[in-house]
Amino acid sequence: MYDLAIIGASPEGISAAQRGISNYPASRIALITQGWEGVWAERASTKKSGGQSDWTEAEPTEKLRQLAAFGVDVIPAIGHFKQTETELAWQGDQRALTAQAYLLTTAVERYQATQGALTQIPSGNLTSHPSGAKTWGIWGAFPQHLVLAQTLAQHGHSVQLFTRNAHLLPEEDREMGHLLRWYLEAQGIKIWRNCHRFTANFIPDSQTYQLSVQSGTTTHGLQIDQLLQPQCLKLPWHWLKALPDFCPAIKANAPYVEVNDCLQTAHPQIFACGGSLKGYSSEAIAIQEANYVVDRVLGNSQRPINYAQIPFGIDLNPPWYRVGLSEQQATAQWEKIHVYYGYEAYQGASPLRGGCKILANQQDQMVGAHWFGASAKAGISLLTLGMTGGVTVEALKNLPVVDSGVAQVLQDLSQR
Fold this sequence. Notes:
With 416 residues, the protein is an alpha/beta fold. The chain has helices at residues 11-23, 37-48, 58-69, 108-115, 143-154, 174-186, 283-299, 327-333, 376-388, 393-397, 404-411, and strands spanning 4-7, 29-32, 73-75, 80-83, 88-91, 96-98, 102-104, 135-139, 158-162, 189-192, 195-203, 208-215, 218-224, 226-228, 270-272, 276-277, 280-281, 312-314, 320-324, 338-343, 355-360, 366-372, 414-415.
């Protein structure tokens, strides 16, 4: 019997196995790939074709070899849970295994659904050629919808984005939300806010959609070529359907599995982690949760996860990142806060430039930051380290920074 069986060789699954064998070398750990080999090949293919990918196929394969060499039982298999009268087991293609605890990581089906917004677009419709340009309507303004809208606009399409909210990303910092809206609108994306009574009728003769949408107090009629609406993402419930503990809670189209504060599911032996938070997709969150489960199961650790210090963002071009509190949240906790702004250099002929907004408490220690621009990923990583270490904003300005774009923004920080 294993001490911990990790289901899924996803990024967080591999991270959990690495942490387990490094920190608890006497533990017996199994890592079941659960179909992730196909994802590695897809990422490698994307990178070879010039797309954005942070992995090659060889990288996770080499990590698995290293894990196996250090004692992790790496099992290339796909399977499901099987409950008997005496034990909970994982039934793979050719073998079954048992463990004291199981960790569910991001499922391949879930990964492909959340990463595949563009797969909703019929083949051939995503083109840079003017003759193939269409008018697209997108209902919803979650982060994945914004990425999709920008991608379509960059390929020469006209995009209409509809949201019920009065502001883009209403739970985020209001100023940074406005900056993002202005940037998307400068790229030709029409954003309709306060939308209600949305109806769409398909017209077979013209192969178009006639929309009626109430924005504010005015009703508008629009004609578009393609309409994308939110699709309900399904988790692979066949993993769990044999478990009586899960049956009452399972909903056919639920995109999640419920966990308690310890990331424990309805079955006490099964834990789960994931990278979604308020519509954002964050690998960092999934990895933190996976590592938390490893420490709790193998090390009996009771230390909670500090989600406020995990950066997450939107994979736009340029990217948009956040860590910690927004200004609204910070002012609810402290009577007075310090707000700093820094700006990137202008890019080409664009009238807009990226920048960051840093929030600090009365001791000038950072409590939150937003960054939208070319240097966002490197910049937010540095700010996260500073926030974790209690660095003041004044000290941050004097840190030696390798990235020239980040260094310029920090040196030019000014207080509101």
